[in-house]
Amino acid sequence: MSSINMNIPLLHPKTSTPHHSQLLLTQIRTCQSMQELKQVHAFLIKTAQNHEPVVATELLRQSATSDFRDIDYALSLFDEMPEPDCFAWNTLIRALAETHDRPLHALLFFCNMVSDGMVEPNRFTFPSVLKACSVLTRLEVGKQVHGLVVKFGFSGDEFVVSNLLRMYVMCGNMEDSHVLFRRSVDGVDYMNKVMRDKRREEGIVVLCNVMVDGYVRVGNLTAARELFDRMHKRSVVSWNAMISGYAQNGYFSEAIELFHRMQMEDLLPNRVTLVSVLPAISRLGAIELGKWVHLYAERNKIKIDDALGSALVDMYAKCGSIGKAIQVFESLPKSNVITWNAILGGLAMHGKAKDVFDFFARMERSGISPSDVTYIAILSACSHAGLVDKGRSYFNHMVNVGFVPRIEHYGCMVDLLGRVGYLEEAKELILNMPIKSDDVIWKALLGACKVHKNVEIGRRAAEVLMQLAPHDSGAYVAMSNIYASSGDWDAVAEVRLMMKDLDIRKDPGCSWIEIDGVIHEFLVEDDSHPSAKEIHSMLEEISNKLNFEGYRPDTTQVLLKMDETHKESVLHYHSEKIAVAFGLISTTPKTPLQIVKNLRICKDCHSSMKLISKIYNRKITIRDRKRFHHFEHGSCSCMDYW
Predict the structure, then answer these.
(1) Beta bridge partners of 593
(2) Which of 111, 223, 135, 108 is nearest to 177 (CA)?
(3) What is residue 201's predicted lDDT score, i.e. its pLDDT?
């Protein structure tokens, strides 16, 4: 333990000199722990110097804002101060507002300050108070604070106004946010007439950033983009807000397009930019761009912390490179459960159940406590591997250690039971679970009914789904497919007529492949690509070679009433087959192909891909809606269980 130098000349407070006060301040500022700070405090009490205003205020600041802060101790120091000044009040309000379980105390402390009347709040008081309102989403309290901002003459202070605007945004009140924003940007509230234009411009950029973030939070990406495009000047925060907004709301291509445009405008991405764009890269499987992001971070000495590291692990895993994901994971500190969850989720998606169990054991040995997300990854791994008993065991273990199962955990169990054909048990689990079911969990059961051709339970699941999500095509399509697989074409026609009446359209099959950093998208029977003619020729070549190998199209996968020849033609032009054909004509021999598909891969395409990987000596990786399939030398990593 470091020692504290208490050899400071003893002086009576009334005879204290500036030099002596500076020595005391230095002693306080060099403390490395709360214990050291308390020793200095004891010395000050012993020498009757604890009430010297400058010294007492610095002692308060250290105890409230340092890395080793102790808020309760800071409050006791504040109570000792005969006449705390505005800085002392502000220090405590800010510390309370920034402590996760104390924002309400910050508001109460501010109320005491105002009601006491001895000290008036200043421009540094209100931002912390408004932050507390934001954290607590107390809009009505925030509006009262707004009134005090006007009363004390700070409605024209750009620092206060930006925090006031952020409060309205965080509370979801975009109408009042817009009014305040327009007044501020138009200059009505900017009272300082001598303010330099550059400073004013920077202030407006801050306000615009807050509004863009607000529109993103409420899901109004159109308004966010319109404001973003109108900004005369943008900071990296502006770009980050828009990129993150697109990525979080499923507009992955737009997020990546904006990321490229940001660099074209000579604005360097920062750590937040990379964390924001990586989920979009992951979803589209754009691994070359993901590698560039990783290299950019290393070359620019951007610290790969838990957040960025976890995003990189997730990106590599979802782009099909689980080996690289593990490599990045091993280079991280691994001190955060989020990092472990990223690798566990990635391994589960790749069907590596044994590795999931091994990594989970490592995690427990390292002293990291699992979260509820950890168990989602584990149960998902059990589901992909068909390990029913193991899944039940982990589910019970999760409950025994104190976790309350979420809908996602029950969803994994329903998926696990449904895959192996325990449909009745899966249905009973849904009906008896203590939380309300959602459309996702019923879709899992309905999907299992389709695989196992169980019309009775499938019809029940579809009926519930149509009530929960009446305009979602999933239930109608799945039920139609179940009827079609059993040859009940009248029932198929009835379901399709219902879809037509409700204007419900099936989501088209879509696949993506990245070639030389460019993402190419293909739909079923897509002939819109510039290379459509060459793709068609390659599809014909693939078909001929497959037939030579003894392959016969599995027309039972075409759940439409048509002749066999037409069914074979439909299978021929599934989106993943078109993507593979394009990959074969666009890359050199033996180059691995990686494809992302928005729907579950059908049995016919699965069988075809195994043979194509053998015929063309290619490793083909396909990520469908559920998991990864690694095709190589005529076999698949899923062992035909998916």
Answers:
(1) 620
(2) 223
(3) 77
Distance CA 555, CA 572 (A): 11
Cα-to-chain-centroid distance, residue 448 = 29
pLDDT tens column, 93-105: 999 999 988 999 9
User: What's the order of all strands across the beta sheet hosting 620-623?
Assistant: 518-523, 510-515, 593-597, 620-623, 628-632, 635-636
Phi, psi of 510 (to 5 degrees): -140, 135
Contact predicate 629/642, CB 8 Å: yes
Assess if residue 62 is contained within a domain.
Answer: yes
Does 213 share its domain with 351? yes
Residue 8 has pLDDT above 50, yes or no: no
Tokens read off for 156:
């024209």
Radius of gyration of the chain (CA): 31
Mean pLDDT score across all residues of the chain? 89
Say which amino acid occupies 70.
D
Burial of 497 (0-12, 13-18, 19+ CB in 10 A): exposed
Question: Is residue 15 situated within a structural domain?
Answer: no
Confidence of residue 482 (pLDDT cuts 50, 70, 90): confident
In a domain, 16, yes or no: no
Go through the chain and tell me how many residues it has. 642
The single-letter code of the amino acid at 506 is K
DSSP run (H or E) holding 460: helix 455-468
CA dist 175 to 155, 157, 172, 179, 215, Å? 18, 21, 9, 7, 11
Domain that holds residue 44: 33-69
Q: What confidence tens digit (pLDDT) does each residue in 336-371 have?
A: 999 999 999 999 999 999 999 999 999 999 999 999
Beta bridge partners of 632: 635
Last residue in a domain, options 461, 483, 506: 506
For 152-163, the pLDDT digits (tens) are: 999 989 899 999
Q: In angstroms, rounded to a whole number, what is the distance separating the alpha carbons of residues 231 and 251?
A: 21
Q: Pull the structure tokens for residue 451.
A: 């695989």
Q: In CATH, what number is assigned to the domain containing residue 448?
A: 1.25.40
Question: Are the C-beta atoms of 185 and 207 separated by less than 8 Å?
Answer: yes
The beta-strand segments (E) located in 485-531 are 510-515, 518-523
CB proximity list for 438: less than 8 A, separation 6 or greater: 407, 468
Phi, psi for 440 (deg, rounded to 5): -65, -45
- Which residues are CB-neighbours of 254 under 8 A, at least 6 positions away? 246
- Give me the residues paired with residue 597 across strands: 511
User: What is the per-residue pLDDT across 306-326, written as a single tens digit (0 to 9) for each?
Assistant: 999 999 999 999 999 999 999
Q: Are 459 and 479 in contact (CB under 8 A)?
A: yes
Q: Residue 52's pLDDT band (boundaries 50, 70, 90)?
A: confident
What distances in angstroms separate CA 420 from CA 302, 392, 425, 639, one per listed residue? 46, 13, 11, 14
Question: With a threshold of 0.85, does the pTM exceed it?
Answer: no
Question: In which residue are the tokens 């009827």 written?
Answer: 483
Kindly give the residue spans of alpha helices, DSSP state H, lying in 137-173: 139-151, 158-170
Count of Cβ atoms closer than 10 Å to residue 640 Cβ: 11
Q: In terms of Cα–Cα distance, which of 435, 383, 453 is closest to 414?
A: 383
Bridge partners for 622 per DSSP: 595, 629
How would you class 222 by CB atoms within 10 Å of its CB: exposed for 0-12, middle for 13-18, buried for 19 or more? Answer: exposed
| Residue 601 DSSP code | P
Identify whether residues 349 and 457 lie together within a single domain: no
> What number of CA atoms fall less than 13 Å from residue 129's CA on the CB side?
28
**How many structural domains is the chain composed of?**
4
Q: Are 100 and 69 in contact (CB under 8 A)?
A: no
